[in-house]
Amino acid sequence: MNVIQKIGLGSTFTGLVILMSILFVGNFSVKMDRIDPYITINQYQQLSSELEHLEHHLYDNAFQLSNEITTIYNNKNEQLKKAEKWNEVMWGSSQDFALTVLRNNSSNILIINNIYLFILTIGLIFLGGLLFIFSYLFYPKQSGRKFVNNVSESGFNRDAYGLILGLFLILFYIVLYWFPSYLINWILLVDPLSMALSGNQASQWFLYGLLYTLTIIVMGIRMLIKYRHNKYQLLRTGSVMFFQTSFAFLIPEILIRFDKPYMDFKNMWPLDYDFFFSWQLDTYLQNGTLGMFMLVWGVALFAVGVPIFTYFFGKRWYCSWVCGCGGLAETAGDAFRHLSSKTQKSWKIERISIYSVLVFTIVMTMATLYSRFSESYMFLGFETASIQKTYGFLIGSMFAGVIGTGFYPILGNRSWCRFGCPLAAYIGFVQRFKSRFRITTNGGQCISCGNCSTQCEMGIDVRAYAQLGENIVRESCVGCGVCADVCPRGVLKLENGPEQGRINNNPIIIGNDSISINLDSENY
Asked: Fewer CB atoms inside 10 Å of the end CB: C or N, the chain?
């Protein structure tokens, strides 16, 4: 480890220690006059007397006050439900309410010095990451296979360091989804940036979006340096960095500033599973021409855009060039790509799992639209709201977030894309049966080194196809191109060609294009 790497690592570690420490500092005390403007009339009527009892208490951290507020909120709701006073029940989240109270009752140093603390925490973390990454520029300009060392590096091979990192990510996602009020001090850190972009106070989702985007930018720079010899890798990495920064982060925040609907124009159903929810449709329909454009755009993107783009470019046009989930997997998750299982059993689980999620998404969407147009709250004997809530918990939160990202150091960087993403299932189905994309192989040149299979993040046994000289046409392939990059003999090539002959069963190629034998079952 050289001097620059040590400085970068020290900077990142210092920023991370300060950031974690901030969660446990601060003084909080409840003052009803501070929260009156931010809560509903019903919430005030139901909770004011209970909250007034907390006014004389001073809390040393957010956890204590948050737990008391959520307990009061949930107990009151239970009382109202038992009494069947449904008009008085507070249907919002107790965590969201606690976050509102904490934000407006914090008297700690974060409110005054949030800009400086932002620099000392998030700033130091990502600056240190950049310093560590830029040190690789001093390495000779080598091909990607010379950097295939993550298989044995500490932290990237399911060792103790990797498991600690995985546990940290899992805990972060659990807190983010179900205990966001615990993150109030981190949210206060990014308030100035949120106010500058959208004119609103920061939420846990703004904090997450900022961290997500910065991670893709910093780790994207790592990819640009690592694969600086490969034009294809440079273009696709630059693409995911651009789409995440502009389409997923900046544009939606700027839209809010001008009092327009929030929308990530690159996201689409079925990944954007709440696109057809009533509140979302009402938002579009109530915002005039722009709202109608957003609605039409969202429908056209998955109904027309996916078949057309996938036909010409394969699954890679979205999963490797545009998607935010894929962007994080390709940048921050690159070092974990070798952890994906290549067994036949995993392939069988993959096909069952991912298409089950797609079916679940379709059923939930059908229930949503049926309830909207029929004004019925039931669908096939189930409450539509219950179906939506179940999907949001199991798929939207647990699978996509906790498992999809938290398990990078355990299952590899594409576990969500491979086993759970309904959009990946849809695009993959089109790629398999109606696309010009394939990865061609020259079996005669294959030396069975296994680099391609090891580095395939989607768990495809690429070597098995290469040994037979068989084209790789798989629903799961995202066309990242790393298999071709790490091949020392140039056996693999990403191509868009005619559909005819795209799927070639049982070919055997001997030598360097000298002899080609294709066993066609119709001739035997």
From this structure: C
